[in-house]
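Slack export, channel: ligand-projects

TW: morning all. Re-posting the request from yesterday since it got buried. We need the structure predicted with the small molecule present, not the apo form. The ligand is magnesium ion; the SMILES is in the block with the sequence. No rush, but it would help planning for next week.
GE: picking it up
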Amino acid sequence: MIKTVKLQDFRNFNELTLNFSSGVTVILGPNASGKTNILEALYLLSTGKSFRARLEEEMINYGGQVARVKGTVVDEKGGSNTGPAITSLEVILTRGKIKVGDDPEKIQNIPRKTLIKNGVSKRLIDFAGKLKVVLFGPWDLDLVTQSPSLRRKFLDTVLSQVDREYRRASLSYEKGLRQRNRLLQRIRDEGVPRTQLAFWNQLLVKNGNYISDKRGEFVDFANKSPGFLDQDFSLIYDASAISSARLERYKEEEVSAATTLVGPHRDDIIFEMRSGKSSKDGKIDLARFGSRGEQRMGVLWLKMAELAFIEKVTNEKPTLLLDDIFSELDHEHREVIFEVSKSQQTIISTADQHYLEKSIEVERVEL
Ligand SMILES: Nc1ncnc2c1ncn2[C@@H]1O[C@H](COP(=O)(O)OP(=O)(O)OP(=O)(O)O)[C@@H](O)[C@H]1O
Ligand SMILES: [Mg+2]
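GE: finished. pasting the full token output, ligand included:
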């Protein structure tokens, strides 16, 4: 769990230090006070990436040159005699260039992002995943109906947190895919020989199969997770399998389209729901037939499954980050969330304190 976080020139904060308890912390502040920015900083410590910045530089304070986010993470199951194990995580962001001396012409390139764990600079795949988080914000609420790429991104976020090999395979797959698509274009436009495809095919098949297997495992796990109130949800993994045989079958189409047509970059997950209201065996396709409220409950269910999955795989409870979602949910479903908040470290942001349940004990941070 996260113990402290210190921000310097990060978004609207020049300097901010926060301490978190192991229970529920509520960050209370009006619109534009920086609530989402704080959760973004925590997510950055967890994954090494932002969930919203298009360019990472956007996270540096308008007036600043360098942003720092530093946190201490306590591993509760850490050594029993030595006390809990503590890890320090730090992300440093720059604009990529600094002036050297007084000469305005002298500009030196510097890394845009540095990830540091216990004082040692790390690659992304070795930095991510120490702090485990499940983030849930208003932008997630339409996941059921949005584009497949967002559902793939969801799967990647879950699996990348718990599996270093998945992080490696995804990076390798993405790079390989770009190279292979470029090659397909050169085959089509410049008559480059097709034999060069073999190398990329092998790389994509190997990494693609790992990705599909892990995504399948998450879907199977989610399908065993309980629903709530009178609704049960499930997922269908609509996988685009990749194999030498499939690549062989589509090779002509791939060359003329100059793009790779099969593989996990074409996967999707489809939500289904069975409720007290539907016919006895009736499962419905949530995207097509669900009400907006039901679709949102499907996402809530998926987030609960994500929490349970991370805990099962890593034996650690992730920190739940809830960004201002209460105004979007009805009373009954807010209750579901409060119930879940009690069982792990939870950090909730809200502009409106009347949503806070009196029955649960919370630490407050006012912005
Ligand atoms: N790089 C930056 N430098 C300085 N300020 C920034 C930067 N990026 C964003 N901001 C500002 O930070 C402020 C707080 O943003 P944030 O999204 O965290 O607010 P919030 O408290 O979540 O608000 P809401 O309740 O509306 O969601 C905004 O006014 C935004 O313009
Ligand atoms: Mg916000």
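GE: first-pass observations. Residues 11-12, 29, 31-37, 58, 60-62, 324, 351 surround adenosine-5'-triphosphate (ligand 1) (CB under 6 Å). The chain has two domains: 1-132+317-367, 141-315.
TW: perfect, thank you
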